[in-house]
């Protein structure tokens, strides 16, 4: 068994954090699904910018689209929606065999709508209809406007991947919006058993920023926390997840077939060479979760990763690490807000470059 496939028995699913036409048509994606047990695929503007700008398989279609009276965004969508559909079709058997738990493929709404709830809802519904696959997921950011949009999309019966979550405020806001969306759907007499959502919590960007601050403090206590905060945060966030989705409030929804909104670990490629290159996978394996992993980290785990359930361990130590961080004067919630703004900017820039390609 592949070391990656060995993660599944612990209740976690591994999704690929990459997508391109070449990956699909070469058979490489199908191989990953079959041999490594990859159970889903995520994309974002940065991934598609890299794919469209470097994969020759897009050139002919793009040239034809440029002959048509379309906006740059319409041309972009005309290029990528077929890729999402083809990937959904590749993972359709996984979706069916898992009774709708696995096999999801994510496409993000325009980052320009991050602070526009109505615009996000409209864009998400349009993309959902265009893809027209039950195992698609529409990605929306965990901004205040995104929270509003997310709740409405769940009420509308659309699968959603909420992205750019960096602190416990983001986690709690999104998980509770999911429950409210399901409750509204039940009140309207609509079924809830086919809806799936994930909440994407980012890791390596957190440690990269916080470790710089810890290094500037320079004390032994500060240095001891380096490379530990993102994992500590995720372990605490997982306790919030369990309290909600294994508690009384969700029990009534579960009785009607509702699925919990799984936490998804994102930004799991290690950016500091001093750390183990598989640590954001190995340390966070646990039930009812997803880890979306870039190619290099998949390769590393396939070579030397160790699969065991660590997510529900060392909880008290994780709480203590976050308390120690606060006592050093570093506000995790403020860090999370800063990182969300920076993440949105990166997606904005990537999307702008995409539209320049298709203009």
UniProtKB/TrEMBL annotation:
**Subcellular localization, per the record?**
Cytoplasm
Active-site residues, as the UniProt record annotates them: 139 (schiff-base intermediate with substrate)
Its pathway?
A: Carbohydrate degradation; pentose phosphate pathway; D-glyceraldehyde 3-phosphate and beta-D-fructose 6-phosphate from D-ribose 5-phosphate and D-xylulose 5-phosphate (non-oxidative stage): step 2/3
Chief location category: cytoplasm
Q: Name one GO molecular function term.
A: transaldolase activity
Q: Name one GO cellular component term.
A: cytoplasm
Gene3D superfamilies per UniProt = Aldolase class I (3.20.20.70)
Q: Which UniProt keywords apply?
A: Cytoplasm, Pentose shunt, Schiff base, Transferase
Q: Which PROSITE patterns match?
A: TRANSALDOLASE_1 (PS01054), TRANSALDOLASE_2 (PS00958)
Its EC number is: 2.2.1.2
NCBIfam families cross-referenced by the UniProt entry:
PRK03343.1, tal_mycobact
The name of this protein is Transaldolase
């Amino acid at each position: 068994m592949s070391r990656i496939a060995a993660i599944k028995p612990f209740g976690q699913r591994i999704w690929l954090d990459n997508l391109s036409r070449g990956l699909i048509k070469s058979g490489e994606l199908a191989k990953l699904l079959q041999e490594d047990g990859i159970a889903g695929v995520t994309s974002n503007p940065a991934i598609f910018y890299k794919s469209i700008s470097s994969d020759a398989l897009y050139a002919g279609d793009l040239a034809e689209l440029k002959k048509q009276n379309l906006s740059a965004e319409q041309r972009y969508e005309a290029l990528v929606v077929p890729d999402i559909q083809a990937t959904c079709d590749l993972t359709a058997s996984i979706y069916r065999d898992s009774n709708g738990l696995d096999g999801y493929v994510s496409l993000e709404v325009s980052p320009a709508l991050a602070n526009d709830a109505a615009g996000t809802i409209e864009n998400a519904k349009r993309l959902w209809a265009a893809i027209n696959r039950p195992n698609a997921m529409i990605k929306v950011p965990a901004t205040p406007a995104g929270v509003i949009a997310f709740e409405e999309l769940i009420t509308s019966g659309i699968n959603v991947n909420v992205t750019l979550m960096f602190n416990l405020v983001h986690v709690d806001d999104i998980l509770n919006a999911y429950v409210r969306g399901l409750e509204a759907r039940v009140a309207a007499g609509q079924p809830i058993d086919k809806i799936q959502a994930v909440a994407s919590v980012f890791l390596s960007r957190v440690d990269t920023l916080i470790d710089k601050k810890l290094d500037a403090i320079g004390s032994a206590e500060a240095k001891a926390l380096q490379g530990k905060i993102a994992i500590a945060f995720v372990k605490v966030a997982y306790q919030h997840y369990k309290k909600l989705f294994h508690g009384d409030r969700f029990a009534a929804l579960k009785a009607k077939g509702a699925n919990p909104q799984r936490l998804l670990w994102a930004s799991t490629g290690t950016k500091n060479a001093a750390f183990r290159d598989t640590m954001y996978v190995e340390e966070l394996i646990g039930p009812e979760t997803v880890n979306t992993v870039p190619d290099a980290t998949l390769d590393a785990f396939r070579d030397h990763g160790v699969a065991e359930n660590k997510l529900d361990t060392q909880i008290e130590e994780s709480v203590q690490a976050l308390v120690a961080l606060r006592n050093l004067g570093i506000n995790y919630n403020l860090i999370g807000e800063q990182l969300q703004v920076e993440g949105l900017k990166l997606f904005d820039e990537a999307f702008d470059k995409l539209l320049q390609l298709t203009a």
